[in-house]
């Protein structure tokens, strides 16, 4: 074998060794890549499984330990607070309704001629009648009472045709109901009348179920022009 043959043989051996090294490196890289992908898949699968487990346990816990939430009806259902049990969505039979957009709300210092009796809205005095469950034994000024209605109060009025028992029962209801007031009113058409801003109802008895309905709906109800305004700190003429 000549020196030239030795050179070519050594060259081929070197090239073959490099090829074997490259193949071995590729196999290692492939194994590492496959291992990394497998590990990532396992991690994702584990996270998904854990999430499903947590969701299932939370769902089971919520369905077995928590009672369904029931929204209370507005103003209770004739409990110790003195509120009524009427359906807030149903119309109240016999109720009169005025367009609140036409009821002006200016503060005035002069008498006001109201188109309804008792008044249910319009210009009024700058000071409201105290209406934190107040029962007045004598008539109160219209202009101050209307301001109370603007704050969300219900005003109960009665004539001498109302029975003493009805007056007592209504007074008991008003006295435990914030944002309400009661007073005699001899010029009104009905024996007992309930007024809120833009709303009015006439009844013959304190036991009429519409009394509770009216309180339920209109004590600080959706008709209130100034929700959250006070019913104390005003005029008090007891």
Automatic annotation (TrEMBL):
Please indicate if the UniProt record lists Repeat as a keyword.
Answer: no
Locate the transmembrane regions by residue number: 30-53
**InterPro entries attached to this UniProt entry:** DUF3105
What residue spans carry the region label Disordered? Answer: 1-26, 59-104
User: Which top-rank group of organisms is this from?
Assistant: Bacteria
Per the record, where are the segments of Basic and acidic residues compositional bias? 1-20
Keyword set, alphabetical order: Membrane, Transmembrane, Transmembrane helix
Protein name per Swiss-Prot or TrEMBL: DUF3105 domain-containing protein
